Amino acid sequence: MMQKMYDWVDERLNITPMWRDLADHEVPEHVNPAHHFSAFVYCFGGLTFFITVIQILSGMFLTMYYVPDVINAYESVKYLQNEVAFGVIVRGMHHWGASLVIVMMFLHTLRVFFTGAYKKPRELNWVVGVLIFFVMLGLGFTGYLLPWDNTAYFATKVGVQIADSVPFIGPYVKTLLTGGDILGAQTLTRFFAIHVFFLPGALLGLLGAHFVMIRSQGISGPL
Amino acid sequence: MAKQDKDATFVGDSRVSAKRIPNISPSYSDFPGKNEPFWPNFLLKEWMVAAVCLVGFLVLTVSHPSPLTDKANPNDTSFIPLPDWYFLFLYQLLKYPWAAGDWVVLGIVVIPGIAFGALMLAPWLDTSKERRPSKRPVATGLMLTALVGIFYLTWAANHEYHLAHPDKGKGTGGKEGSSATAPAPADTSFKADALWKAQTSCMGCHGKNMEGGMGPNLQKIGATLDAAKITDVIKNGKGAMPGGMIKDDAEIAKLAEYMAGLK
């Protein structure tokens, strides 16, 4: 039955090469912790992705309760935290996951750097990886404001002031981020849009490019 | 796209070749070393690692509810902002006089620009074929220096914050809306001494019974500051608090003595 369904789809879409590439490819010995325990350093990239998936899922559930406006944002987070079943867990995962993803990505970057894996022919994948790092920092910065508590408000105020003091483009960046002269209703809505639509879109595109390049180039060889 | 035979046939009017590739796994024993297939052998191991990490992650989540301080109040001038920990190193950099004020361009554009620019352009800056860290001392050395710098700056920012706010920074979760950064709860039964009640300028900010208001709660100030330090704060001010509100030194000494006794 399964074989028949597979054949039916394969006849129309030729999925076998895709399956070969996605799933049925070789994993070299030197990256496999089952053979060399020190190869656990090669797990950091996968764990970064794993936590990113957790962030996306927990974030999707958070938006089912979160209200992005200055009057209700704080109340909705408080409600989610204290009243909703498992709300404290879902918000906790998103909150701590934001830190963990940075930690994992940092470790992954160091692994790639110290094994010299960014060298020819993998230069472009390194650049995409650094861009992913920036997008993640952007997600952290914009997400920090969304609970609209004092910590969030004043940390963002400092961040926006820092952006403002960049010569020439600073004031424009500030206006782009805050949507006005002050950090207020416009800012919260903008940060929500950036955090939930713009940056995740960029992130998914970059992650796709990252993975396609890994598959087409393979993992760098042993040192 | 894949090359097609001249007389290849296609499925209907699509560009999918009618000639099917049989779905047979390659023989992994032909690869050098102990290669194994990603699916399902390696993926299973990856999932085990992920499961262990997930357990640790959930333990952290359950034991430390995410913090939630009071609702944002733009007029709260006493609130000391602190960015999330992974921005602390940049935040700390901008506190140094050589990277702030007239030199802010250095701290805000030049140093981070060079650091992140070099990170992004690493493949073109380090073009040797050599991959071992010990064989490319410049790249390894620069990265280690940057790491030490980042760790030091993050530590310094956190350390300075805790020095300046000894009562803050103990995460308590968001259950009651009180948290690391909220002021100590005021003791309503606390009655300040007549020495305090004589100082209307202090009461304006710290409250009739030292319960706090614009300024922090001082009901247990003796636990963190001694008389000499309190005298210094009264004379010279601190943060948003102005100094020199009380002119008479003897009066300051008496008040400081009284406040240092509050524990």
TrEMBL record, chain A:
<keyword id="KW-0479">Metal-binding</keyword>
<keyword id="KW-0560">Oxidoreductase</keyword>
<dbReference type="InterPro" id="IPR005797">
    <property type="entry name" value="Cyt_b/b6_N"/>
</dbReference>
<keyword id="KW-0812">Transmembrane</keyword>
<dbReference type="GO" id="GO:0009055">
    <property type="term" value="F:electron transfer activity"/>
</dbReference>
<dbReference type="GO" id="GO:0046872">
    <property type="term" value="F:metal ion binding"/>
</dbReference>
<keyword id="KW-0408">Iron</keyword>
<dbReference type="Pfam" id="PF00033">
    <property type="entry name" value="Cytochrome_B"/>
</dbReference>
<keyword id="KW-1133">Transmembrane helix</keyword>
<comment type="function">
    <text>Component of the menaquinol:cytochrome c reductase complex.</text>
</comment>
<feature type="transmembrane region" description="Helical">
    <location>
        <begin position="192"/>
        <end position="214"/>
    </location>
</feature>
<dbReference type="GO" id="GO:0016491">
    <property type="term" value="F:oxidoreductase activity"/>
</dbReference>
<dbReference type="GO" id="GO:0005886">
    <property type="term" value="C:plasma membrane"/>
</dbReference>
<comment type="subunit">
    <text>The main subunits of the menaquinol:cytochrome c complex are a Rieske-type iron-sulfur protein (QcrA), a cytochrome b (QcrB) and a cytochrome c (QcrC).</text>
</comment>
<keyword id="KW-0349">Heme</keyword>
<feature type="domain" description="Cytochrome b/b6 N-terminal region profile">
    <location>
        <begin position="5"/>
        <end position="223"/>
    </location>
</feature>
<keyword id="KW-0249">Electron transport</keyword>
<feature type="transmembrane region" description="Helical">
    <location>
        <begin position="39"/>
        <end position="67"/>
    </location>
</feature>
<keyword id="KW-1003">Cell membrane</keyword>
<keyword id="KW-0813">Transport</keyword>
<dbReference type="GO" id="GO:0022904">
    <property type="term" value="P:respiratory electron transport chain"/>
</dbReference>
<protein>
    <recommendedName>
        <fullName>Menaquinol:cytochrome c reductase cytochrome b subunit</fullName>
    </recommendedName>
</protein>
UniProtKB/TrEMBL annotation, chain B:
<keyword id="KW-0349">Heme</keyword>
<dbReference type="InterPro" id="IPR036909">
    <property type="entry name" value="Cyt_c-like_dom_sf"/>
</dbReference>
<dbReference type="Pfam" id="PF13442">
    <property type="entry name" value="Cytochrome_CBB3"/>
</dbReference>
<dbReference type="InterPro" id="IPR051811">
    <property type="entry name" value="Cytochrome_c550/c551-like"/>
</dbReference>
<keyword id="KW-0408">Iron</keyword>
<dbReference type="InterPro" id="IPR027387">
    <property type="entry name" value="Cytb/b6-like_sf"/>
</dbReference>
<protein>
    <submittedName>
        <fullName>Cytochrome C oxidase Cbb3</fullName>
    </submittedName>
</protein>
<keyword id="KW-0479">Metal-binding</keyword>
<keyword id="KW-0812">Transmembrane</keyword>
<feature type="region of interest" description="Disordered">
    <location>
        <begin position="167"/>
        <end position="186"/>
    </location>
</feature>
<keyword id="KW-1133">Transmembrane helix</keyword>
<keyword id="KW-0813">Transport</keyword>
<keyword id="KW-0472">Membrane</keyword>
<feature type="domain" description="Cytochrome b/b6 C-terminal region profile">
    <location>
        <begin position="28"/>
        <end position="155"/>
    </location>
</feature>
<keyword id="KW-0249">Electron transport</keyword>
<feature type="domain" description="Cytochrome c">
    <location>
        <begin position="181"/>
        <end position="263"/>
    </location>
</feature>
<dbReference type="InterPro" id="IPR005798">
    <property type="entry name" value="Cyt_b/b6_C"/>
</dbReference>
<feature type="transmembrane region" description="Helical">
    <location>
        <begin position="137"/>
        <end position="155"/>
    </location>
</feature>
<feature type="compositionally biased region" description="Low complexity">
    <location>
        <begin position="177"/>
        <end position="186"/>
    </location>
</feature>
<feature type="transmembrane region" description="Helical">
    <location>
        <begin position="103"/>
        <end position="125"/>
    </location>
</feature>
<dbReference type="InterPro" id="IPR036150">
    <property type="entry name" value="Cyt_b/b6_C_sf"/>
</dbReference>
<dbReference type="Pfam" id="PF00032">
    <property type="entry name" value="Cytochrom_B_C"/>
</dbReference>
